[in-house]
Amino acid sequence: MSQRxxxxxxxxLVMFDGAVRKWVLPGSEQLVYIAKDILLAALMARYLxxxxxxxxxxxxxxxxxxxxxxxxxxxxxxxxxxxxxxxLLGVLGLKSHVLYxxxxxLVPAAFKDxxxxxxxxxxxLIPVTLVLAFGVLQFYLPIDHPLNRYVRGTTYDIATFGxxxxxxxxxxxxxxxxxxxxxxxxxxxxxxxxxxxxxxxxANKLAYACLLMGVVVAPMTGARWVYYVLLACLPLxxxxxxxxxxxxxxxxxxxxxxxxxxxxxIGLWSMEAFESFEQRRRTTTDVSDRFDSLLLNPLRYSFxxxxxxxxxxxxxxxxxxxxxDAGWYAWLPSSDFxxxxxxxxxxxxxxxxxxxxxxxxxxxxxxxxxxxAGANASEKALAGAALMFFVAHxxxxxxxxxxxxxxYWLFAGILAVILRDQYLRRAAQPTLTPDAMVPVRARR
Length: 444
Known about the structure:
Helix content: 55-70%
Shape: globular
Largest sheet: 2 strands, antiparallel
Number of domains: 1
Mean pLDDT: 88
Distance between the termini: 59 Å
Number of helices: 15
Structural class: mainly alpha
Number of strands: 2
Order of helices and strands: HHHHHHEEHHHHHHHHH
Strand content: under 5%
């Protein structure tokens, strides 16, 4: 299997392994769940045997190498943290932290340039749009319909929202959290490809369809997170596109026409979802508490975690199942954790927390610089799409949400291709010293 075919298979498993676990092989859900991890590990092992630990050109000449090496080193050492009740738990934690980083190396190895990546991503829009459309179908099915069940779940486990108790759709994913982050990924991808295609209708039918389905299905997840991150990231993307000349007044008519179609589609298919979502938003009282825990829990936990923390995997969702005799997170000072920043502090300590947050922030800065330095529409727009996804996940889960982690590092791999193209262009241009003399051809 080639690197490119391996990445295709990996993405297929990311999008559809939940469907296999729920509906095709419900008795083998754990084996199906780890299939994509085994595949990615095998692809990375072959990469290392063929090339060694060789960073892609462009990435190797940035500070990302330092941040990434520090993060991997700290999490690897955390496997041996004496506070962990089992070294197997540490190995599981290490996998959650660093396995999907492999995409940073594998994506540039599989694609020759940014244009090649853009062409493949346009084909990827087909399954992405189908997954979103299936979510719309789920929303209108009865709660107890077999297509609405979760992995190892019953009808009573299915989450609903609103006065009408409509189902929170999961589509082909195992749970709502995976579908939620996938909807945001689809919106980022469609916006990036539409902008790269200058918002033309004829050449961007799939991107328009994907963006439309993403807008329609987003409220059907019942998740507030999508709207919060869109409010934070969309203005940044639009500003970047204006600054790079990718969003001009001559595209206004196309955008207005699409906005009108999206409004009509929402009125036709999503009005019940928006009403249920709005009812959930108004009646929910934990918003301030969630922001408080998201921002302040790392500080609160730092006093107990100290410099080194309690070990990679110590807050993992499967910890209680892996070491049942140890008690419910008995090795931690508290089991009252949910958001990723606090869990990172508990697992990696203050040192690891700073490095992991620094890595995420540096990737945002790198995507911003790549967007500004883009030489063509694909480089600018795809770097902008990656920037949106990176900014949204500075505080959101990429370690404790497998779908988010896979898609996050997929965007990092795409960014690596862009950086490689930009590096090769710079290397091909001779650098002149300030006092260099440029010969002038004599006139004939």
